[in-house]
Amino acid sequence: xxxxxxxxxxxxxxxxxxxxxxxxxxxxxxxxxxxxxxxxxxxxxxxxxxxxxxxxxxxxxxxxxxxxxxxxxxxxxxxxxxxxxxxxxxxxxxxxxxxxxxxxxxxxxxxxxxxxxxxxxxxxxxxxxxxxxxxxxxxxxxxxxxxxxxxxxxxxxxxxxx
Length: 162
Hints:
The protein is α+β, with helices and mostly antiparallel strands. The protein is built from three helices and eleven strands; from the N terminus they run αβββαββββαββββ. The protein is elongated and about 50 Å long.
């Protein structure tokens, strides 16, 4: 399961984060998923599963991509994305711009370890009972992308500012 989360985090960081300008902070870019996608009407199983996990979600927009249902929605004033199987199994959920929602323990560890850096944004990746955070940190000279859990914080990528 941890290997799945690590590979998911790496994939998410590559897919969802990019630089628009090397002098600016890292910004989250639009997600592009390759495959045949069509707006979808989901089965009752998938709709019930979505409503179970995300009772207060608004503005759901469904797509069918490669035999999976992807839904973009708003929950607690945050953009979210979730992927379901056709049988209604939740594969994973991403919450964007969740820096304000970083757990205090993780935020404290990051601030103590990377004292010269500011937290600029975060993505919460949840699969099953496992949660990891992809956090963008920025200093005057560098930008870091770190992977954070309750047990560990590690640098995924480092970018030098000009």
